[in-house]
Amino acid sequence: MEKENVPQDKGNLTKNNLKELLYATDENGDYTTTLSSGWEPKTIALSNSIDDINERIADAKQQVVSGEVSPICYYMEVNKMDLTILASYVGLWKWRVKRHFKPNIFAKLNDKTLQKYADAFEISVQELKNIKTD
Amino acid sequence: MQTNFTHHQSAHCENGVASNLLKNNGLNISEPMVFGIGSGLFFVYLPFIKVNHAPAISYRTLPGQIFNKLASRLNLKIKRQKFSSTTNANKALDENLKNNIPTGLQVGVYHLSYFPDEYRFHFNAHNLVVYGKTETDYLVSDPVMETVTTLTHDELDKVRFAKGAFAPRGQMYYPINIPQTVDLKSAIIKGIKNTCRDMLAPMPIIGVRGIRFVSKQIRKWPVKHGTKKANHYLAQMVRMQEEIGTGGGGFRFIYAAFLQEASVILGNEELKVLSKEMTQIGDSWRDFAVEASRIYKNRSAKEDAYNTIADELLDIANREEIFFKKLKKAIS
Lengths: 134, 332
Description:
The complex is a heterodimer.
Chain A: E1 20-25, E2 31-36, H1 40-65, H2 71-78, H3 83-90, H4 94-100, H5 103-107, H6 111-121, H7 125-129
Antiparallel strand pairs in A: 1-2
Helix pairs in contact in A: 1-2, 3-4
Chain B: H1 13-24, H2 31-37, E1 41-51, E2 54-60, H3 65-74, E3 77-81, H4 86-98, E4 103-107, E5 126-133, E6 137-141, E7 149-152, H5 153-160, E8 172-177, H6 184-199, H7 207-242, H8 252-266, H9 269-298, H10 303-330
Antiparallel strand pairs in B: 1-2, 3-8, 4-5, 4-8, 5-6, 6-7
């Protein structure tokens, strides 16, 4: 890639005023470094992921409201986690966390376990039990 | 408390930390040199491991390996420590800062408050240097950032003890012994040989065979998983290839820069020619990303479009196979 062809598209970094460093060739074909503010294919890829996450959050919320899953599921998506990551944050086996996805099991959890989840999501137990519905 | 440390921005975090720490200790070594000697270039496809709900694809070796290989090839001694408690981890770090040792840390990205929200994923193989401490903050040199930054004590605890795959467990590292003279020539040759071996490995999911395998899979994605999931997989692949830290083109441009530098040090004209070829291959990776983005932008994947980019990928794999065979010959 030649230096003058390094893309300077508006990207997700632009609003934080960040630029990333890229390697490109100068007019003699020698390598040099240069800054880029973003590149469209990348920006779309990232917003594609963000959309995907938002969709997952919305789905999870819907399922909590309809009583199919516990709020843990919802907060897991909000925090961009999956089962493996969540299990490792709360320090429980995956099968136990999965079990806590069931609303009737969740309702019987003791405060100590609830606190673990609340800490992992950086919220209070109260917020964990009652998700905001709009 | 603040140590003497100069921040240089780099494309990739691990190379950048290695290069910055070594420069700080009087060994002037560039980021591409670190990447090349440490044999960072790689390709692996792990369909059975999911990252962000898509199959894992990596364009680089495992975290920590680049610096470790570099150290052993240049006879540097690096000290690495992991901790089971935050208290001990902080004590060791503070002790280092008191002794004027800027220290490299492996951290999780999710709690890095200075990153834009969109970039905060549960990715635990990020690297940065802590070079000082104030009452409330740690002074941080994150090599992918243009300038130095800070994290509060609490935030640093969180990023050092992030959980999940590759959990850093407070890992810190710093060079403890750097020889007066280093033998760059033999280190470069070892590094190149290692990369050629990796990329030409007789394993279906690694190196050029891995790229070919992905090309074959891509053709099946829209039928097997439906358009939506296939688009998501493709977007994730482009992110791995182009996201911050790769220097563009899935590390191919950094590697080309390394070959150019190596050709001067070794007095090998052939490497300069190969550097140009690698640049062209990197450009093709960029073209692949552009084509792929057209697919997931329109969200109307025709099966045909997937076949087109699969062909492009296959062509890249074939060219890389020839390339690494030539590279192997050029240094033997």
